[in-house]
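Fold it.
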Amino acid sequence: MFFKKIKGIKGIFKNLSTSGGSLSSKAVKGGFWVFSLRIIDRIFQLIRTIVLARLLSPDDFGLFGIALLVLSMLETFTETGFQHALIQKKGETRSYLDTAWTIGLIRGFTIAAIVFFLAKPASIFFDAPGAEPILKVIGASIIIQSLTNIAVLYFQKELEFQKYFKYQFTGTIVDMVVSITSAVLLKSVWALVFGLLAGNLVRCIMSYVIESYKPKIRFNVSQAKELFNFGKWVLGSSILVFLITQGDDILVGKLLGATVLGFYQMAYRISNLPATEITHVISKISFPMYSKLHDEPTELRKAYINMLKLISFISFLITGLILALSTEFTKLFLGENWLPIVPAIQILALAGLSRSIAAISGPVFYGVGKPKIDTIFQIIRLVILIIFIYPFTVKWGITGASFAVLLSIFISNIGFSIGVIKITKCDINTFAKNILIPLVSVLITISPIIYLKNIIYVGFLEFFLLLILAVFIYLILSFVCDKFFKYGIWKLIKNCFGVLEI
């Protein structure tokens, strides 16, 4: 049955690639299915998180988080931006692949060596001796990533979503199986390390199984310079994004310790489900789509509005569910020892909602060849975070850190929205309509859910019934808005499903 479903998915993508309609319509349809497939991936990730939260301690997650912070910092500060440049570049780009892959290979081995030698100083900085051996091993993951076939970028550039799903999903399955098995046997943080390495290794292998191109060690100076002219802005933006998204983790880990960092990162992981997943889908679809449409302003505007409508519709619902049922979810699935993260989950869920909407803007700036705009607004976001993160964390712990993150994202998102409205010439009333309708709908939706959970005992069955009821109410309200306020969401969803023969 599973393989029949996979064949059906292949048929969907085949229909997507051959069906008529504009590029924006094709991309929205593709985006809908990529998101659907991503949900499958996230279900497995959620199962992994729940099981590991029961088997491992917050301290284990904190130690692993410290190791990932160090690795992520080095990856970010050495980002070449070549893949973004190749996706945005018009015409034939395969002649550039070997140069980009060779530089990536050198970068990977260099980062791994630096991580090894920084292991002890980093563990001293965070006052976490247990992080040292983890850091010495985890650098191998970046070597594996650097060996990955660079031609996988064409999965994005050519909107070949089914190949991307195979490439990512196999690694997810292996990561889950290895980490859970190791957790049962070892009951230690090494379960997370082994899962990460196994997942990356399988993705590397799959990149060569799925993509026929085989990169070679070759370096062309002129090609490297050309790619870096675009990539330097990606580097700048990546550094800012790292400081913005990981700076709070560094501060929490330094001030409050590895255990509290474990709590904070779990809260972020759960609360940012809409932002993480929607941002992921957008970055894989919107950027190449906008790159192809930057000379067609009408189609570009239409694509942006459709993305805004679809993303807002999904994001507001997920955020509302997190706000209404976070306490029950934490108690039932993670265990009562994780209950201190609930306030942080609720605040970060709002931050995630804002980030998912802002994520629509970034690909527009890159797609039209203006990455500098994205960098400017990321700087504004970073400045706001720097001003508030330390005093808020010292005074209110992870709840204060969460609020500082929300404040920085919300304020900078105003700038992102204004910038993209100017570029696409989107009508402000249309923009506001696609935000306000799902906002009002979700507020009405969660009101009875909050009332009911306070007057009944919520076990596993009740939790899922409340979840189903909330989704039902939200869909009914969306249907009403469609009929009386010309919302247009159901027509968009119908177009997404239109490729299927039901």
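Residues 272-502 form one domain.
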